[in-house]
């Protein structure tokens, strides 16, 4: 698990990164650089979006594989990557 | 409406772009460079994802605004932008 901490630390140290969350496929955060309240809220909101994106992709092209999801807003960029067991969320300030 | 056609034409001419769809907020395609069957399928799949992303954002930060959603897969990149009345989907080969 030290490896996970190393990844989170390195990501969090990147310029503009505001928060990093790693959660399991049941939606339980296993690492987060955010306050608990935000962590729980973000995971609860992001997981259904991830599930829907994967489902959409499966119906569009079953032979294709999900890589990542990027939600760009006025203030932030939310990047969501996932494998079978975990998903990772990075929230960052958009590059100028 | 000629302006919309011009935008679609210019987007479709971009290297790697496989398809462009413009649909209204009721999920009716008003322009598409794809076959009807794909257009209807993609709009039906993408619209709920867009609605969910916007809802997620509203709950995360009501003062923030949605800009775009990018779904990256092994084979493609699906970019979804939207304003109040319309949303646009561009499907492209990811840059190498």
UniProtKB/TrEMBL annotation, chains A, B:
Protein localization: Cytoplasm, Cytoskeleton
Listed Gene3D superfamilies: Dynein light chain 2a, cytoplasmic
An MF annotation (GO) of this entry: dynein intermediate chain binding
InterPro entries assigned to the protein according to its UniProt record, in alphabetical order: DYNLRB1/2, Roadblock/LAMTOR2_dom
GO annotation terms (biological process): microtubule-based movement
SUPFAM superfamilies: Roadblock/LC7 domain
KW Repeat (keyword) present: no
A Pfam family recorded for this sequence: Robl_LC7
TM helices/strands, residue ranges: none
CC annotations in GO: cytoplasm; cytoplasmic dynein complex; microtubule
Roadblock/LAMTOR2 domain span: 4-92
Stated family: Belongs to the GAMAD family.
Protein known as: Dynein light chain roadblock
Organism this protein belongs to: Xiphophorus maculatus
